[in-house]
Model the fold of this input.
Amino acid sequence: MNRKSVHINLPESVHTEFRILSFQNKLSMQEIIAGLVTSLVDKDPYIENLVKKMKQEKRDKDLKKITNVESIDIFDQIKDSSPWSSKD
Done:
């Protein structure tokens, strides 16, 4: 069977805790990640719901970013259009 590798970047603190958890469970970090991905591919409902939750959280975060930028733009427009603003 041919294998492909996937490289991930984790914050140091997450990596440390993950390493401890894998050691406590007598599994390698690779075995845990491979098991989780295999469960996702095999349509495990718990893992699928976790991914859906992550997707929603990312969408909410992106929407919040857009909303914040739009709010700043709107306030800048109001400020720039104000008859009381100083236009030198």
